[in-house]
């Protein structure tokens, strides 16, 4: 029993002192400038969802982005949806999500990143909370959980997502 309270106390000390690493995108501590740039670019996606701004969400994506496994994407598409979509299709999907929602938010958890030269790969679990107006003014809420891999490259305009794969 004494060992357990000692371990809990040590863990609390680490968390309070900031020594414990955060696994969320928002709390991620970059190890170098490239990681910091990639993280700030990826933060535009959940921040754009929070602001309901399709333009902000699409800023990190390259024009020739490949979004794979779209039938799992946000739970929005039907099982007969295409396996991949383009950036213009992605724009349409986010516009439709915002049009039908009372409130939308996204958390990015279990975030991991690897940067090598002009390429980067990030993996995370996204949790999208989608609220719609239901009968009798009761909000109906749905949670969509997806594991996602972002493959990025450095361009003259900064880091851009060239491939987004939903597991």
Describe the overall structure:
This protein has 167 residues and is an alpha+beta fold. Residues 1-21 and 72-78 have low confidence and may be disordered. The radius of gyration is 18 Å and the shape is globular. The longest helix is centred in the first third of the chain and has 16 residues, at 2-17. Strand 4 (119-133) and strand 5 (139-155) form a beta hairpin. The chain has one domain: Nuclear Transport Factor 2, Chain: A (Roll). It is built from five helices and six strands. 32% of the residues lie in helices and 39% in strands. A six-stranded mixed sheet has the order 2-1-6-5-4-3.
Offer a few descriptive terms.
alpha+beta; 6-stranded mixed beta sheet; single chain; globular; 5 helices; 167 residues; 32% helix
CATH architecture annotation name: Roll
Shape: globular
Provide the residue-averaged pLDDT. 79
| Amino-to-carboxy terminus distance | 41 Å
Output the radius of gyration: 18 Å
Order of helices and strands: HHHHEEHEEEE
User: Low-confidence runs (pLDDT<50, min 5 residues)?
Assistant: 1-21, 72-78
Number of E-state strands: 6
Structural class: alpha+beta
Main-sheet strand order equals 2-1-6-5-4-3
Count of distinct structural domains: 1
Oligomer: single chain
């Amino acid at each position: 029993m004494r060992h357990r309270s000692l371990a809990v106390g040590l863990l609390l000390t680490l968390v309070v002192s900031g020594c414990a690493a955060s696994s969320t995108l928002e709390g991620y501590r970059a190890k170098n400038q490239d990681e910091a740039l990639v993280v700030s670019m990826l933060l535009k996606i959940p921040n754009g969802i929070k602001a309901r701004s399709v333009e902000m969400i699409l800023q990190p994506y390259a024009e020739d982005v490949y979004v794979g496994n779209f039938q799992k994407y946000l739970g929005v598409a039907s099982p007969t949806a295409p396996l991949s979509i383009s950036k213009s299709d992605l724009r349409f999907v986010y516009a439709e999500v915002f049009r039908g929602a009372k409130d939308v938010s996204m958390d990015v958890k279990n975030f991991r990143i690897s940067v090598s030269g002009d390429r980067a790969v990030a993996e995370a679990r996204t949790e999208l909370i989608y609220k719609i107006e239901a009968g009798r003014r009761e909000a109906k809420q749905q949670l969509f959980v997806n594991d996602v891999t972002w493959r990025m490259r450095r361009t003259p305009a900064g880091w851009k997502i060239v491939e987004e794969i939903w597991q």
